[in-house]
């Protein structure tokens, strides 16, 4: 579908994409610009993208010194990694069962899944908090990971994906005498690669950036996730130190960008690995 | 006698296989079921029960007040305004972000160079912490020193007081909402697009589909069915669940102009500490979501075909 | 499932390991607004630990605002997560007292005997009392002041060395500044967020929020009327636009606003944001009634939450230290708050020289004699009450309601939220 040479259609396509990218990236341009400005350089009446004095080193130093970036990033990786692992572990068999196996409770399962999708953490936070507190599990990795180990989003996503998978592969495996677990491990998982990668992106992004739940269950600094660390820069009454805040944002967003770039490549690899593209 | 046995054996085997299959399926789904009950069902029940009390955060005891909270809800102007705002926000953000997400995905998919760059560019907003993006957006939207109004001024348009005026606050938040969701939908559509077998396009061309528009209508759109269903459901639900942008940028203001359901619930429960009342609101909120999603799913599921 | 037990085991082990080997009291301290209190808290706690080697201070996750701070405390009240010491907004002390969460400092003050000698005069002690009960010790206190852009004042024909003393003068000058054009606005008054600045006008006119037995609203009396009419004049004659709090601060820092009226607590940040862009000055806030007018006290107080006797004693030491002259000498230059401790303000050892060298900080200091407590509404709906007042003020500012109407609506809404006695 890709044309060689620049037809008018292609020029139009590219222009749209580029203009769109600029609009979408505009806030980031400002973040990078502000991260390099001294505090009095930020709010000026004239629009200035290039800082008057390059303050990147100072702002990044301020960002690094106000909070222990190493702990933040480590916790972010650990928590997101654990959450993703459990989510996939639990969701794939469940979605497979709902998509490919005959299952009396499938309808009810679907209802449960839909219900789960609808319920935001803001609604269930209070009872969950009370529960974790009575088990003395606050301020722990368990509290950060457990509520999210079930991702109905994952089940829903894999379900749609598995439904459109041809049954022949599975029938063939059954005829070969494979057990259901074997089918899941050796037929489904390798073929589910694009869905798993896509889901990985959503899961990691959602939980890396989650402020609400960690804010409620974590008060000890050694368990801080990246968003909690950013809180240090906010002072409601007297205004924020925007330069340092932007520098800290950069430091926290960069791992995600890197991860997404990596995942993209796997995404493409994953497609060519499966027989689906034909 | 023999013939009955002969026919019943395969049937028995089939029945046994079916039971086996059902058991395996249940086993596969069991961890998920347990966790859903534990982390979703039980808290929801707790919330519904709390909706019948006057519990305040920090209280040592609570009182059952039956439907008093719900009666109060009907008369609460702020709640009604919230409902309306949430509906407006969803009606703008969901369709626009779905359409743009699909558009961008199609453009990227059919373009050879720069795919990685474009995918990252459009997805970046999804990956960003709203608490930090909020300060940037607040600056971009500043009525007098912000770049957006400065640019508008260049072309002779007097930019509005985006976040400060009750007429435009909600729409400004919608713009940010679209900005945040397009990348999300784009990735989903990309996954869906790559799963469409190429032979179908070849077959369509043989059948006389010449232009890109024909190809889209005949092959792409129908094959994207399951993906579109998924994207629509997720987009609507996410739009109704908006909270972070409102909290970070306008606090529901000015004067409730941009207040949305989840924010009102948060205010009542965690700021005014009226947890009983907030729980009643949450119950109503969940009921609305359930009905909405049920309807939407029913409508679209019929139109989707699976291979 | 195996992994969860592993994690639980690891968590349990880590919790055991962090308990120190020798008998040392560890205090967990919680505070709001880390953006500028973090450095202050770090400095104070470091000095305290130097002088008290047997006490260790560790900080819990700070809260972004006073409201979030008190929510966190109320949510954690009675659980193992509750910190030992916290800092609470002065107008929320009542709320924490009504729920019996804080330790009554009265007996501790009495045992001390000579609080006044340490700079804790009666006036200062009163700031953190609720109906005579000592709920905390005032840590950082502020009052509202007038910031102005001397360059814009000069350009509009005013004299920056002789700032306006009455509201009429302010409005006239602000109007002239707005007439300068070029995207400049005359003034910005911080009515958003909570009822503090409104009470600055109300108390400045000699008015009160509620009547003496707290059963009826009194802010819709003649003083309140004068206050809201003034706000309307700000908009109509003084060139005040409908700014959000952040937008207003940023526009002023960019040099696009003539006068800004907000807390002296924002002083240090304003100085940093303004830099050398223009000549920043401060002055006293005009009072509608120069004789009887008073100003509300913003800020927060240190409150002790732990009832464990050993920790409580350590916490009392820390509270006195933080709210004492050393603490004040750190807070004032770091933020712009006024000293909550008379010893600090006067003696050269602490802040005496500082005020001579930093004239911008003098505006807040000079208003200390007319500071009265930030009013805390009774009952469970305190937070909603302040929000209701702000919502109605916003209707006056954006022109969708006349001052009298908005004031009456606020009064009736608030009365509905007061506790039924």
Brief summary:
With 278 residues, chain A is mainly α. Chain A is built from 13 helices and no strands.
Structural write-up:
The complex is a heterotrimer of chains A (278), B (307) and C (421). Chain A has helices at 8-35, 56-66, 69-100, 106-118, 121-134, 141-145, 152-163, 167-175, 180-191, 193-208, 212-217, 226-230, 242-273. Chain A has 278 residues and is mostly helical. Chain A is globular, with a radius of gyration of 23 Å. Chain B has 307 residues and is mainly α. Chain B folds into two domains: 1-40; 68-304, MetI-like fold. In chain B, 76% of the residues lie in helices and 0% in strands. Chain B has 13 helices and no strands. In chain B, helix 3 (77-110) runs antiparallel to helix 10 and helix 12 (261-271) runs antiparallel to helix 13 (275-303). Chain B is flat and about 65 Å long. Chain C is of the alpha/beta class. Chain C is 47% helix and 14% strand. Chain C is built from 19 helices and twelve strands. Chain C has helices at 2-17, 34-51, 66-76, 93-98, 106-112, 122-127, 150-155, 167-178, 196-204, 222-236, 245-253, 267-274, 309-323, 325-335, 342-346, 352-357, 362-366, 382-397, 403-417, and strands at residues 25-30, 55-59, 85-89, 129-130, 133-134, 137-142, 144-149, 185-189, 257-263, 280-283, 295-304, 371-373. In chain C, strands 1, 2, 3, 6, 11 and 12 form a six-stranded mixed sheet that branches. Chain C is globular, with a radius of gyration of 23 Å. Chains in contact: A-B, A-C, B-C. Chains A and B meet through helix 1, helix 3, helix 4, helix 5 and helix 7 of A and helix 1, helix 3, helix 4, helix 5 and helix 7 of B.
């Amino acid at each position: 579908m890709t044309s060689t040479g620049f037809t008018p259609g292609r020029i139009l396509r590219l222009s749209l994409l580029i203009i769109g990218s600029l609009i979408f990236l505009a806030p980031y341009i400002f973040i990078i610009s502000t991260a390099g400005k001294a505090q009095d350089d930020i709010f000026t009446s004239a629009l200035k993208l290039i800082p008057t004095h390059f303050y990147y080193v100072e702002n990044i130093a301020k960002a690094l010194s106000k909070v222990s970036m190493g702990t933040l990033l480590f916790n972010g990786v650990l928590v997101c990694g654990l959450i993703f692992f459990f989510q996939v572990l639990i969701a794939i068999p469940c979605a497979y069962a709902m998509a490919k196996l005959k299952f009396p409770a499938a309808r009810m399962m679907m209802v449960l899944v839909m219900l789960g999708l609808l319920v935001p953490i803001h609604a269930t936070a209070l009872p969950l908090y009370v529960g974790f507190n009575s088990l003395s599990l606050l301020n722990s990795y368990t509290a950060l990971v457990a509520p999210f180990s079930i991702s109905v989003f994952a089940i829903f996503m894999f379900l749609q994906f598995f439904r459109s998978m041809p049954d022949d592969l599975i029938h063939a495996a059954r005829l070969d005498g494979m057990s259901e677990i074997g089918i899941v491990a050796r037929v489904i998982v390798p073929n589910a690669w694009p869905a798993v990668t896509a889901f990985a992106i959503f899961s990691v992004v959602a939980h890396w950036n989650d402020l609400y739940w960690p804010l409620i269950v974590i008060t000890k600094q050694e368990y801080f996730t990246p968003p909690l660390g950013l809180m240090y820069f906010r002072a409601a009454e007297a205004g924020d130190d925007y330069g340092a805040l932007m520098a800290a944002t950069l430091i926290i967003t960069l791992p995600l960008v890197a991860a997404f770039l990596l995942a993209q490549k796997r995404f493409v690899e994953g497609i060519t690995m499966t027989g689906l593209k034909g | 006698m023999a013939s009955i046995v002969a026919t019943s054996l395969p049937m028995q085997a089939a029945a046994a296989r079916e039971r086996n299959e059902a058991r395996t399926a249940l086993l596969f789904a069991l961890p998920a079921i347990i966790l859903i009950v534990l982390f979703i069902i039980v808290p929801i029940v707790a919330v519904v029960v709390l909706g019948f009390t006057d519990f305040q955060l920090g209280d040592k005891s609570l009182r059952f007040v039956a439907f008093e909270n719900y009666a109060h809800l009907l008369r609460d102007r702020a709640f009604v305004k919230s409902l309306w705002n949430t509906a407006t926000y969803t009606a703008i953000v969901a369709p626009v972000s779905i359409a743009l997400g699909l558009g961008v995905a199609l453009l990227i998919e059919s373009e050879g160079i720069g795919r990685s760059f474009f995918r990252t560019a459009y997805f970046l907003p999804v990956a960003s912490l709203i608490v930090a993006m909020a300060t940037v957006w607040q600056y971009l939207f500043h009525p007098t020193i912000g770049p957006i109004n400065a640019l508008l001024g260049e072309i002779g348009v007097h930019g509005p007081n985006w976040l400060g005026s009750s007429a435009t606050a909600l729409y400004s938040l919608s713009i940010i909402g679209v900005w945040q969701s397009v990348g999300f939908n784009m990735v989903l559509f990309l996954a869906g697009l790559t799963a469409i077998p190429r032979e179908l396009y070849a077959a369509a061309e043989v059948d006389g589909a010449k232009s890109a528009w024909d190809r889209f209508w005949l092959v792409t759109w129908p094959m994207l069915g399951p993906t579109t269903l998924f994207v629509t459901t997720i987009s609507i639900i996410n739009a109704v669940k908006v909270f972070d942008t409102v909290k970070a940028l306008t606090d529901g203001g000015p004067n409730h102009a941009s207040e949305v359901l989840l924010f009102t619930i948060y205010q009542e429960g965690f700021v005014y500490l009226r947890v009983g009342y907030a729980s009643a609101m949450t119950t109503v909120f969940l009921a609305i979501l359930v009905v909405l999603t049920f309807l939407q799913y029913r409508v679209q599921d019929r139109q989707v075909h699976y291979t | 499932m195996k992994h969860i037990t592993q994690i639980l085991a690891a968590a349990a082990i880590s919790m055991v390991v962090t308990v120190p080997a020798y008998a040392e009291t560890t205090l967990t301290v919680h505070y709001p607004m880390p953006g500028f209190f973090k450095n202050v808290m770090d400095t104070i706690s470091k000095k305290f630990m130097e002088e008290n080697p047997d006490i260790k201070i560790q900080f819990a996750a700070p809260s972004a605002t006073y409201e979030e701070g008190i929510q966190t405390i109320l949510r954690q009240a009675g659980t193992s997560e509750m910190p030992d010491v916290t800092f609470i907004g002065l107008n929320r002390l009542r709320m924490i007292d009504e729920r019996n969460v804080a330790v009554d400092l009265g007996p501790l003050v009495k045992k001390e005997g000579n609080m006044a000698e340490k700079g804790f005069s009666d006036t200062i002690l009163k700031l953190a009392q609720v109906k005579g009960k000592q709920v905390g010790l005032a840590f950082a206190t502020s009052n509202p002041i007038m910031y102005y852009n001397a360059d814009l004042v000069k350009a509009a024909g005013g004299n920056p060395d002789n700032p306006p003393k009455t509201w009429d003068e302010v409005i006239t000058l602000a109007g002239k500044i707005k007439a300068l054009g070029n995207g400049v606005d005359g003034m910005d008054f911080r009515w958003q967020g909570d009822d503090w600045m409104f009470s600055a006008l109300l108390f400045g006119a000699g008015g009160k929020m509620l009547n003496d037995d707290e059963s009826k609203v009194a802010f819709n009396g003649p003083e309140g009327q004068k206050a809201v009419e003034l706000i309307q004049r700000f908009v109509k004659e003084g060139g005040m636009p409908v700014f959000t709090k952040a937008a207003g601060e940023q526009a002023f820092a960019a040099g696009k606003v003539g006068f800004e009226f907000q807390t002296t607590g924002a002083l240090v940040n304003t100085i940093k944001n303004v830099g050398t862009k223009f000549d920043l000055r401060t002055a006293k806030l005009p009072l509608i009634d120069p004789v009887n007018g008073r100003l509300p006290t913003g800020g927060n107080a240190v409150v002790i939450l732990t009832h464990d006797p050993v920790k409580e004693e350590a916490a009392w030491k820390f509270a006195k230290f933080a709210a004492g002259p050393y603490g004040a000498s750190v807070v004032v230059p770091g933020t712009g708050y006024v000293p909550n401790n008379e010893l600090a303000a006067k003696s050269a050892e602490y802040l005496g020289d500082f005020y001579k060298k930093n004239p911008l900080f003098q505006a807040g200091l000079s208003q200390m004699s007319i500071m009265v407590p930030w009013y805390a509404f009774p009952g469970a709906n305190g937070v909603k009450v302040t929000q209701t007042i702000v919502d109605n003020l916003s209707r006056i500012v954006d022109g969708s309601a006349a001052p009298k109407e908005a004031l009456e609506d606020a009064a009736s809404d608030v009365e509905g939220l007061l506790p039924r006695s």
